[in-house]
Amino acid sequence: MEEWITIVIPVYNRAALVERTLRSVREQSVRPLRLILVDNGSTDDSLAVCRRFQQENRCAGFRIDIYEEPTPGANAARNRGLQAVESEWVLFLDSDDELVPEALSCIRAAVSRHPQAELVGFTAKRYRPDGRVTYKRRCFSSKPEDQIIYGMMGTSCFVSRTALLRSVGGWDERLEAWQDWNLAIRLLMRQPKMVWIKRPFLVKLHEHAESITGLAYAPNREKHFRSMEITEACLADLPEPGRTRAIHYIHLKMLILAGLYRRERHRELAEETWQAFLRKVSPAAGKKGCYRLLFCYIGTGLPGGGTLARWLF
Fold this sequence. Notes:
Order of helices and strands: EHEHEHEEHEEEHEHHEEHHHHH
Mean pLDDT: 93
Number of strands: 11
Strand order of the largest sheet: 3-2-1-4-9-6-10
Shape: globular
Low-confidence stretches: none
């Protein structure tokens, strides 16, 4: 039997967490299924855990392959896995997240109902270090500007046709943060047919201090800005329509970050980022005042800053 979907999981020093992720894949009712694990130079027992899982769960309809990628970075590991994918669809799952048991069944049903679909997005629950459980907030959109503002397409929250993912060059290995943010923008700029599964949630996202994303914005300022710069440069090479609008929203993302730094009490960094935003957009006096109000609003910690930016500008 030929697999219709492949799950790719990059692994780096996740010996204490990856078994939970692997069990969530094993528990999927959909078969045939291929799982690709890519160890990214782990210095703990992650590779041994993956090999033990492979040995204990090898069976008909569940193919497990393990690769090693010496180039540092999750995107290098993801691209190594992407090279080996043979199925029509691919899902990238982070090594500290979980699929709910019915996840692949729901995705396959959505693909059957929408045979022209090229992307399928779905919702997630976020498990925070303090014990709180929340839904990952998102809008159900295929617009690049919504991805720029909301980041609705997280790594583990969508599946793509393999050919579409390869057509945009896969994951950008220059990025250390917001890798999924960048990839999804590039995918959506192609205006693919996208379908959303709004309910039920299909993924459990576990937040912790060692996550690539991190738990705060200010410590990752340089990584985030590099991601925005690289993404803007990628968009600059694309034709209109949509390019200028998308770049404008990347600049708005910079303003939102300035407000978030202020909320985290990094006032000097917030002002520095505010000035960088002004240099990008050179607004007239009236509009500058509106931007400043949004900056201060986000800085107070009140909700909906991204939505307000989207609505106003």
